[in-house]
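Re: the request from the purification team.
They wanted to know what the chain is likely to look like in 3D before they choose a buffer screen. I agreed to run a prediction and write the result into the notebook, where they can find it.
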Amino acid sequence: MSVKLAPATFWLNDIANEWEVHLHGIKRLLLHRTTAVQDLQIVEHGTYGKTLILDGKLQSTAADEFIYHETLVHPAAVACQTLRNVLILGGGEGATVREVLRWQSVERVAMVDIDGEVVDACRTYLPEMHANAWDDPRVEVIIGDALQYVATTDERWDLIVDDLSEPVESGPAVKLFVREFYAQVQAILAPDGVFAMQAGSASPVQIELFARTLATLRSVFPYTQTAIAYIPSFTVPWGFVLASAKPFDSRPDPAAIDRLLAQNSHGGFRLMDGETLLGTLQVPKYLRAAIAAENRPFTLADIDDLSTTL
């Protein structure tokens, strides 16, 4: 059966690699601005609704961002024995803050994003993503460099969530994917604290960044745990990593997790429950093999290599 393409206003060329481009039909451009940090677009996607695009790469869509953000936050939140103070690095659209606030025990959330223009634009154009989470009195939004904040804060955090865009050449996040940075993150975690991050594509043809990111975390943290979710607008399975000084339960009991979520959260999950968490933590064979074969951590000396990995 032939499919006729819709009359899009324009097509976004989301470049996966030198041989592959994913086209996204855009109905309407809502905002286009070059900030001091990056190129910013907020558009209406023909399939996925309102969409945030940074430096030409799709970041979040209204239709499926819940898959990304719930996978980023909740496996780590479940692993935390204490969840009071939470630090979010990045997170400009506000959806990570929204998910953190589902947990009843949270007392403070600090979100550090380098680009205030992105935060302001998302506040205005993407209320369906942030759900006014920034208005909660427990939340502090800090416009600044996450690298500097981590290096200078004297606080200790129960959960640190790294919601930064994957590193691209000359991008703002490239120095936050190296061993030196993760060592600083470890230093500001509470003793039972958990670090959670998105680690890029887990596709079998584009896996190097994920495997080396995990190798980098393993060179700093005693324990790591991988989580996988398929995000339709990304067109590939996406990888997430947890790291801590304590071991993770990679095979949680779904019924026990359902009870924990009912007792300790405000609910409202669209993705996460006990069965989903159990599945998310199971890693396919090809990915386990890639992880086992990679032991080269990224360091500051590898910046050029890191920038061209994608």
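For the purification team: The first helix runs from residue 65 to 79.
Please add any questions underneath this entry.
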